[in-house]
Amino acid sequence: MSWFGRYLRSSVGAKHIMAVTGLLLLLFAIAHMVGHLQMFGGQDMYNKYAHFLQSLWEVKWPVRAGLLGLVLVHIVLAIGLVAKNKAARPIGYAMYKPVRSSPLGRAMAWTGLAIAAFLAMHILHFTAGLVQPQYFHHLDGQGRYDAYSMFVHGFQNPIIWGIYLAGMLMLSIHLGHGAASWFQSLGWRHPKYPVESVGRGIAWFLFIGYMVPPTAVLVGIIKLPGAM
Ligand code: HEM
């Protein structure tokens, strides 16, 4: 087996790659969240942004393929690590009293699974248009794909808003703990770095940033064009 194969099969190698793929996914999550804040700029601003993203297929398809690749590598390595941990201790502790890990840290696999389920729903919703097909692929006055109205119609429905709230809670919990894990996996964890606070800060930043536009729609601050 090549050194890379051996590296990947080792827990240390798998943790390194998980840290790097997780970090790249976090960068995407931040950019995607900041993009949505343009909903506050109105229909023209948001549709211009959505049109820009959708029309650059030379960028769109490599980005889609890259994201899918990152998610798959992250999940496959996570499954491998969980299986390895289980195999190392086939019979559980008689009395399990973790010394350092937090309950949220131990729930990483579950929050990760919940995020995967959320992402599948999200792609069916806004990329494939299968969740609310009645609002999908409308065009605005300038003949552009009307992503703004699709967003507003979507989050005027409290059930959809609640599903996204649950998804963002899972994402924040996962990333909040993920930050501490990256430092650990990359060997940068040191008492002088405020690792836990960085994790908590990222989690709150993403949770609030993502939920502000959908909530502004739900409470009627962001409206359909022409609505009173
Ligand atoms: C409240 C949270 C979120 C909202 C409101 C939201 C909204 C949207 C919207 C409106 C689109 C379609 C854009 C368009 O058609 O131009 C989209 C696409 C997408 N979103 Fe999100 N999103 C959220 C969270 C996330 C998260 C957490 C991730 C992953 C980290 C994510 C990943 C994606 C991906 C991969 C696409 C597909 C882009 C494409 O079509 O190529 N989203 N999102």
What does this structure look like?
- Helix content is 71%, strand content 0%.
- It contains nine helices and no strands.
- The structure holds protoporphyrin IX containing FE.
Count of discrete structural domains: 1
According to CATH, the fold-level topology is 3 helical TM bundles of succinate and fumarate reductases
Q: Work out the radius of gyration.
A: 20 Å
Indicate the structural class.
Answer: mainly alpha
The CATH architecture is Up-down Bundle
Number of strands: 0
| Strand portion | under 5%
How are the SSEs ordered, and which strands pair?
Blueprint: H1 3-9, H2 11-36, H3 43-55, H4 57-88, H5 103-106, H6 108-127, H7 147-155, H8 158-185, H9 195-218
Helix pairs in contact: 1-2, 2-4, 2-8, 2-9, 6-8, 7-9, 8-9
This protein binds protoporphyrin IX containing FE (HEM).
Give a brief description.
This protein is 71% helix and 0% strand.
Structural features:
228 residues; mainly alpha; 3 helical TM bundles of succinate and fumarate reductases; 71% helix; elongated; binds protoporphyrin IX containing FE
